[in-house]
Amino acid sequence: MPKVFIIDVTNRDGVQTSRIGISKLEKTIINLLLNEMGIYQSEIGFPFSKSEVNYINANIELSKMGVLEPIVLSGWCRAIVKDVEDSLRYTNIEHLNISISTSDIMIQGKFQGKKTRDDILKMMTEAAEFAKKNGIKTLGVNAEDASRSDMSFLIKFAKEAKNHGADRIRYCDTLGYDDPFTIYERVRTLAEEVKIPIELHCHNDLGMAVANSVAGAKGAIDAGVDAYINTCINGIGERAGNADLVSVILAVKKASSLKDKLELDERVDLSKAWKICKYTSYAFGIPIPINQVGVGANAFAHESGIHVDGTLKNRRNYELYDYEELGRPEQEIVETGRVITVGEYSGMKGFKTVCERLKINLNNEKRTQEIFELVRYANLHTQKPLTEYELRFIVQYPEQARKIMTVIP
Ligand SMILES: [Zn+2]
Fold it and tell me: Beta partners for 353?
């Protein structure tokens, strides 16, 4: 039976969102946490963009070292030869998604009458062939605005992509225009006609990103191909956001009929949800909404008489799933007295104190000095007090940390 896999795009689509952003070190920690959570693939960024090059190459290095593994690390670029060429020249990226608009609205609106449907096919097939000939192992071809594209052209586009080396087609509901009924039908038809695994990339402009993602996935599965749902942690993303990672996993595992009809990649470990959502919220500086699915402060809170009574008698009366499944600790220890943080202006004494508290052994003075220097730069780089994850990462992989934090304009 075909399966549902998750491709998280927080580090590509999430970070390109207006008014929010994170550092390269924080992107790296998110990749590590996604790997720990058993997520199939992380779209880590833009390999043709020079500001990402050191970060991407260092993350690929961590993958080769077995640290960031088995997660697949992939890049994104436009479906033009120049972007693919630059991506391969600057980085060691081996998995790539290339993107081009397929709807007439966008072909007209973006290219202003200078490109036809045939030109789109030509650009895409040339870029796909170039990528495959030059060592790209997994190639996804993205149909931007697929949901507003003419169905017969979309099928033709996907067939051409497959013939020129595509391993998957990304069905992008770029404007969140689909609904669960339309996306199911369209994706099922596309998958039946082309027989290629489908990625679902859904935005939340009508509040249906998660519903559309799982409905689209079912369309692919019913047509006999694997489905790859694109997610963002905490549902962040452009405008109203992307499909939320935790909600998608819960929908596939717990929803009335989906729980029996969709088979989720068995490596996905929901118990890491709490950890990754909290870290990502901290990194972006965006609080988790109180009513966020699974990880919101109120997701397991009860007050009204009937609900409290019912829940205390049997949690299943008013809780669809358990907070323990999401790795939510029953109590969290928050230090309210003296706090020592490490940052750019820290001294050695404070740094050593924090390391001792975290039971981090730095062995000798030379190494301690070296790590301390990197930690100061890390704070300059993230502009926030360092977290335990970041500190431990720097201690374990100082060379990669140094590379990740190096950006030379
Ligand atoms: Zn998107």
Answer: none
Q: What pLDDT does residue 332 have?
A: 83
Q: Identify the pLDDT of residue 242.
A: 98
User: 18 C-alpha to center of ligand 1: Å?
Assistant: 12
Residue 169 carries which side chain, given as an amino acid letter?
I
Mean pLDDT computed over 352-371: 92
Closest CA to 340 of 391, 380, 377, 381: 391
CA of 238 to the centre of ligand 1 (A): 7
Task: With CA atoms as reference, report the closest residue to 379 among 339, 342, 330.
Answer: 342
pLDDT score for 300: 95
Ligand 1: distance of its center to the CA of 244 in Å?
12
The superfamily CATH assigns to domain 4-275 is Aldolase class I (3.20.20.70)
| pLDDT given at position 339 | 87
Domain boundaries, the chain: 4-275, 348-404
Residues 55/90, Cβ–Cβ less than 8 Å: no
The mean pLDDT value of the chain amounts to 96
Q: What's the gap in Å between 310 CA and the centre of ligand 1?
A: 41
Distance 209 CA to ligand 1 centre (A): 11
Residues whose CB is under 5 A from ligand 1 (ion)? 13
Ligand 1 center to residue 200 CA distance, Å? 10
